[in-house]
Amino acid sequence: MTDIRLTNTRTRKKEPFVPLDPANVRMYLCGPTVYDRAHMGNARPVVVFDVLFRLLRHVYGTDHVTYVRNFTDVDDKINARAAATGRDIRDITEETIAWYHEDMDALGALRPTHEPRATDYIGAMITMIEGLVARGHAYVAEGHVLFDVRSYPDYGRLSGRSVDDMIAGARVEVAPFKRDPMDFVLWKPSDADLPGWDSPWGRGRPGWHIECSAMSHELLGAAFDIHAGGIDLQFPHHENEIAQSCCAHPGSGFARYWLHNEMLQVEGKKMSKSLGNFFTVRDLLDQGIPGEVIRFVYLQTHYRKPMDWTAEKAREAEKTLQKWHYICMTVRPSRSAPTEFLDALADDLNTPQALTLMRKYAKQGNAADLLACGHLVGLLEPSMGLWFDRNDHLKLGEDPRIFEITSVRERARAAGRFDLSDKLRKLLIESGVAVFDHKPTSRAFKEPDALLRYALSGANKAWEAGDKLAAEASVNLLRSAGFQISLDEDGPSAITGFDEVKFDKHYEEHMEKALLEAQRVEETLEPEADDT
RNA sequence: GGCGGGUUGGCGGAGAGGUUACGCAGCGGAUUGCAAAUCCGUGAAGACCGGUUCGAUUCCGGUACCCGCCUCCA
């Protein structure tokens, strides 16, 4: 069995991963507060811990891993959003959850086993808080219930700070009713305008932190294996979760391995609205950057290092994935990924190393392993590769006409009739098919870009040579294929748009013509074939 | 002020106390009837100052700079 090693923030060490129960490995990831589209930073933990989920399923068995990722759908940010827009809170959270699913699905993240909503667990939170009060770890003050950090000696251990240190340089909110400035709210009163639930302390709502403690307890038990999230959650969120959970369930130990991913930057700077480099996953998807490409970029940086999102990385990733998809088009994945690949992932999720190995397999032409590895990290999946098909990279043979014409071309080339072969190639390219001739064989697939390259360079060359008619012919060809382009005194303009429907129509018409021509060529070749 | 992370060749980005990371770009070459592509080779690094060591980019200490958290934040 693959030995997984993970860096545990709690011990600051890379440790062998030993689950409490190999038949039910349990992990919890802090999910989003649902009031807005997920931004690029939100998506990083989702993707990297999705790889962990996949690895655990691979090692322990698909049915032996329970993965919980919550939705925090009660929070003052949501209330503020509702107040600002006049919308119903439930509308906002429902819509945001649907968006979240759309966007994370696009990134190839598997849905967790459970996606609990905080508002469905208010009762569990109240029970937990009652327990904390009963054990003397929490106290009621002015309608609030507060956690007493001094009652938990290990408070600060996860983040490596002591209560006294924190207070020293701190700008903590010193509410007069707090026994200690670091005490945090478990329950707070709601006025009539705010969402609220009846509780022993009056109508109110939970504070931040308690929802994760309650939900992880309900779904995973008092002790479970992995708790993950962004490093920014280390303090105070995770620290407070530990304090609550360990005090509510003494001796349980709560989560055993704490994993934290480093933060995301954009072009070397912190992502922020004021710098104008703030964007959501949806923004990138809408720009036409496929989710699979975004995922690849995430995986190319180790999760415990700061990651920089750049347009350049996306371009490189897209190129690599194009190549890989092409290589894998006709193969089935090998039964299991190579050991070295699993070892890379098992070594604290070394995804950059894993991708390097995939490059190696691609270079070796080892498509079966490449594909198997891809599936293990959520790449090259049929559902994710849709963008590849959407770009009309259809495999050889998928359109039987391309296959037929290509066969005729191969025979023509074998017979030394390059004139006939070239004629057919031209027809293919003008139809919108990319053609690559190799020694005896040839491959071809539908690809608008091939026509674009061919006609655009043709138009430019003709224009420079002063042949306006030829330039016009090339431009017209492009137009007929759905490319928006104009021709004026300065020559051909840049492409300003692409109409896919128009292209498909163009493709169909030209393909029929090319097929007829191929049949004619075949007749020409026939006698020679018989003579030989 | 406290806590934590980072600093690798033109760019991205790993591992390993001593041996080529790898990818992109560059350069050189091969191959190809043409187009497109493909293939091979190759230079280049580890912020700075000390220490440990036969030997450190890799371990230890310090300095500088960058980033994050300490207040809602993935």
From TrEMBL:
GO terms for cellular component: cytosol. It comes from Phaeovulum veldkampii DSM 11550. Monomer. Zn(2+) binds at C30, C212, H237, E241. It is found in: Cytoplasm. The gene is cysS. This is Cysteine--tRNA ligase. GO terms for biological process: cysteinyl-tRNA aminoacylation. Pfam families: tRNA-synt_1e (PF01406).
